[in-house]
């Protein structure tokens, strides 16, 4: 057989066969007097095995290792690693499909979150015109894949339709433009901290180290009096969590 014939038989291109020769993956057969390569059945079998291994997802270097091991031990090892890698890819694909299904099930907007748990949280929360509530939604999007993440959204789900939430947001909205010594600041910080359940704190705490600069950027998104409320709430929650860990 000539190179085009063996390539057609195995289902690869002549260019692939030449490449396998060039990198030493497929031994080059003897040439005829006219200079053409002459391939036999054994060459076709070797080429077919290369094709099957590459179709499984092995790199050419891994195929070389497999072919060099006559006992087949290398093949079992490489295929085991390949199977584990495919399992990870399968899990990731399923996770992405879950996200896509949640997105397709809800209103498709440019600012839609990409977390299924956050999507469910938004669906459960009543529509609100509160600027503070709108900020909270934006801040929660920042946590996708960061502090707390999915665990945080799941922990927040029971609070989504709590009747006390709108009034807390209204009180925070009322402090926009208030002086730094407004007596409502400390009282609201106390009430907000008391409203946060331990499950939410644990989700944040277990979400990994805080992102440097995130706290300052968060506070800068509020007016001075509102920022004092948020900072006071954070301080109270940190103290509460520290007491639980001591």
Summary, kept brief:
This is DNA-binding transcriptional MerR regulator. The chain is mostly helical.
Describe the structure.
- Helix content is 66%, strand content 0%.
- The protein has 246 residues and is mostly helical.
- It is built from 13 helices and no strands.
- The chain folds into two domains: 3-81, Multidrug-efflux Transporter Regulator, Chain: A, Domain 2; 108-245, no CATH class.
- Helix 1 (3-10) packs across helix 3 (41-55).
- The chain has helices at residues 3-10, 14-22, 41-55, 60-68, 73-105, 116-124, 131-142, 149-156, 165-174, 184-195, 198-205, 214-220, 224-245.
- The longest helix has 33 residues, at 73-105.
- The chain is rod-shaped, with a radius of gyration of 31 Å.
Stretches with pLDDT under 50, minimum 5 residues:
none
Biggest sheet overview: none
Q: Provide the gyration radius in Å.
A: 31 Å
Average pLDDT for all residues: 81
Number of strands: 0
- Our count of domains comes out at 2
Query: What is the overall number of helices?
Result: 13
Order of helices and strands: HHHHHHHHHHHHH
Tell me the distance between the termini.
78 Å
Percentage of residues in helical conformation? 55-70%
- The outline comes out as rod-shaped
Strand content: under 5%
Structural class: mainly alpha
